[in-house]
Amino acid sequence: MNQKYLSTRVVNLKPSGIRKFFDIVATMQDVISLGIGEPDFDTPSPILQAGIRSLQQGQTHYTSNSGRMGLREALSRHLYRSYEVEYDPASEIIISVGVSEALYLAMTALLNPGDEVIVPTPCFVAYQAEVILAGGVAVELPTYAADCFQLRPEALEAAITPRTKAILLGYPNNPTGAVASREALLAVAHIAEKHDLVVVSDELYDQLVYGVSHVCFAALPGMRQRTILLGGFSKNYAMTGWRIGYASGPVELIKGMLRVHQYTIMSAPTTAQDAALEALLNGQPHVEEMRQEYNRRRQLIVGGLNQLGLVTVEPHGAFYAFPSIGVTGLDEDTFAHKLLEEERVAVVPGTAFGPGGEGYVRCSYATAYEKIEEALCRLERFTQRYG
Ligand SMILES: Cc1ncc(COP(=O)(O)O)c(C=O)c1O
Questions:
Q1: Euclidean distance between CA atoms 286 and 255, whole angstroms
Q2: What's the rounded Cα separation, in Å, for the pair 61 and 42?
Q3: Each residue's pLDDT tens digit, 141-167
């Protein structure tokens, strides 16, 4: 069939930089992948069992559009306990098919054609695409290693135009591992208030932080009323394949998102919702166990990369390190391709995550400790050749 039948919006979407690269990786043997963006742990057994039980008990039907009430109530308690931010489970929370769907709902509900969304980069690969699919314009705002990948308030304010509708934040950050400081977020809050903007805050990795606290944007003074908080189960609970996320926010915004959700998705998978409830009720010790193991690997990889001259700002969240590859004299694409061909180590070129990624690669440490050790040996050989 001819591409002429496709909408301009879709034709103009760039294929993900990660996909292209991993299509090549998939054809190769003996590769150590530091490219993976998901936990290497399987879903903890009690959560798995809850999913199996749900099926065995015949829970094979739709749930309410917003998701199971029990899950929304548990989430509401969880968010209050964690951040002292209150959401009415009846009207201010939607259970979605991952944060991916929640992002789509937020953008579709908020944007008129041509509305602008400020997207700090480097960021998760779907952010710009979600804005474009909803008819909006993604205004990219690079952050820099020199600022530990924190937003510069003056740069943020300078990017605002009369068409700006929202700011899309993603902390803890994929790909840099940056956790936004309270101070940086307060500056964003001040700007959002001054210019009457909505803040969509993707906090999917909120429980995977190391030595710092995660600040929930909606919990900042005055922000609950202008924030759509997105979160989920994929990363914290090692549940990527279950496809459960959520959005919480002021009733009118959630109502708008629900209108889109009810006609596109109907309801998130029932089995997965039941498993997610178990994760909230009894999953915490498992999250802590995985977090500690990520932290051990994080120390190994960050120390190792810095020793090789691949300067890495200490990442305090998620499971990614974002080293500069300047010392090799290679650009990020050449670095990634040569490292794969010559040493069988996969990393993702930083530019896959937008402006600010030039001269960097993303290394995920959601892989076994011993594999990271071996990857560092291979990287040492590589940097000796290109040092
Ligand atoms: C920052 C960020 N947001 C959202 C997603 C998508 O998550 P989900 O599996 O909940 O759709 C990812 C996945 O890598 C991510 O890194």
A1: 34
A2: 26
A3: 999 999 999 999 999 999 999 999 999
pLDDT in tens, 106-138: 999 999 999 999 999 999 999 999 999 999 999
Alpha carbon distances (Å) from 149 to 15, 107, 158, 349: 25, 24, 18, 17
The Cα 227–Cα 166 span in angstroms is: 9
Q: Look at 5-19, 44-58, 349-363 and tell me which has the smallest mean pLDDT.
A: 5-19
Ligand 1 near 233 CB (within 6 A): no
Ligand 1 neighbour 99 (Cβ under 6 A): yes
Does 174 contact ligand 1 (Cβ within 6 A)? yes
Calculate how far, in angstroms, residue 218's C-alpha sits from the geometric centre of ligand 1.
Answer: 19
Residue 252, both tokens: 């009118």
Ligand 1: does its nearest atom lie under 6 Å from the Cβ of 37?
yes
Q: Which atom of ligand 1 is nearest to the CA of 170?
A: 1
Q: Could you give the CA distance from residue 325 to residue 383 in angstroms, rounded to a whole number?
A: 9
- Whole-angstrom CA distances from 266 to 219, 260, 343, 379 are 29, 9, 46, 47
Euclidean distance between CA atoms 215 and 57, whole angstroms: 39
Contact 176, 146 (CB under 8 A): no
**CB-CB neighbours of 158 under 10 Å:** 10
Alpha helices in the chain (DSSP H): 8-11, 17-25, 45-56, 69-83, 98-110, 126-133, 153-158, 182-194, 251-264, 270-282, 284-307, 332-343, 369-385
Backbone phi, then psi, for 140, in 5-degree steps? -80, 140
242 lines ligand 1 (CB under 6 A): no
Evaluate the CA torsion angle 70, 73, 77, 79 in order and state its sign.
positive
Q: Which residues pair with 363 in a beta bridge?
A: 321
**Could you tell which of 171, 204, 320 is best to mutate to test the pocket of ligand 1, judged by most ligand atoms within 8 Å of the CB?**
204
- Nearest atom within ligand 1 for CA of residue 124: 1
